[in-house]
Amino acid sequence: MALDSGSRLDPECHSGYKLPTFLILVLLEFSDHVSFVKEIAVTDPPEHLNSLLNVLHARGEKIVSPGAKRGLIPLVVPLSESPQGNLTSLLRWPTAPSGMEMPVVEVRSHGLWLLAKNVNQYIHRILVEADSRAESGDDLWSAVREDLWSAVGEAGPNIYKRGDLKESQTADLDVYLLKKVGLFPDILERKASRHLEKGDSVSALITSEFYTRDQFPGFGRPFVFNSEVQKRIGRTSEAKESARVALKSPWWTLGCRYEEAAELAGWEDEQIEFIREKVSEEGKQDDLKKGKAPEQVVLDEAAFLMDLATVDGNWDEVVDRIADCYREAGIHDIAKFIAYRE
Fold it and tell me: InterPro entries annotated for this entry (predicted)?
């Protein structure tokens, strides 16, 4: 299923254009996505997933099939595509801790960028940002705000009290978002960068190190950014160490190309060669001889193949083997999800 609104609203690209209200007032039911998450991804669908899809549609994005995974990292559930070609998706961690909600991510050429820890948080941010732009006196954004509130439906008031940003008298939007909505990678990075621009390296370091303190479990991006900050203020050894910590995370969570993180770590191709050796038959046999459980060997292989695919850009060539690894480890639900693609 691919749903295209026909007359999409992108305030940045179509200034002055107003999406017909009747297209927004009819709330859409995206049952394909809910059932896909439940039956194929085999996890609980986010409570307000339909509301997010309606908001993304109202914002001018084309809703795409959840099974349109060809060429993508196989752990995502695609939601929508922006006029600029950015793909918003949900992330299905293979072994998510109990109670962890599905993060909202943007698919990029080198991997994934975390947009929000969960669906509610992302809806909340979108509504607050629309409020901010509308209150600035922008007539177009006043119309956009109305459309977004029509689209979000009954979930809206449960997530954000309309007008709360203005009532809070918080002058800085980023401050409000961090205090009232949640932590976001791009905002934390912007905060640290602003400190650097002002020559306040101490505050920049405090922010970047806070960013790394398990705020975004599983993601290597905070450590890459911390490495960049450390390098900018001349702390070379600390920069290398932080980058090396980042590279212990899945490479598709680095928020940059592998080569950029490896350069910060002071490495060349040795990590790539090491991993290629580990996924070879000889490398797997060595692990088994050392006493590693067969299930762990194939799970390691799956993780290594995803790291290499981030570098090589060949997801479709390795996805079946990745699925087989989970199948051999007895994790059949994840194997089915990874292998699924239209």
Answer: PAB
Its sign, for the CA torsion 121, 51, 115, 216, is positive
Sequence ranges of the domains in the chain: 1-177, 185-268, 272-339
Task: Report the DSSP beta bridge partners of residue 80.
Answer: 63, 88
Angle ∠(249,250,253) on CA atoms, nearest 5: 95
- Cα-based angle 80, 82, 85 (whole degrees, multiple of 5): 105
10 Å CB burial of residue 140 (0-12, 13-18, 19+) is middle
Distance CA(256)–CA(111), nearest Å, equals 8
Domain 185-268 has CATH 3.60.110.10: no
| Nearest-10 Cα torsion for 288, 291, 293, 294 | 10
- The long-range contacts involving 241-248, CB below 8 angstroms and separated by at least 24 positions, are 242/212, 245/212, 245/220, 246/220, 246/221, 246/222, 247/220, 247/271, 248/220
Q: What is the pLDDT of residues 265-310, one digit of tens each?
A: 999 888 999 999 999 999 999 999 999 999 999 999 999 999 999 9
For residue range 157-179, list pLDDT tens digits in order. 999 999 999 999 999 999 999 99
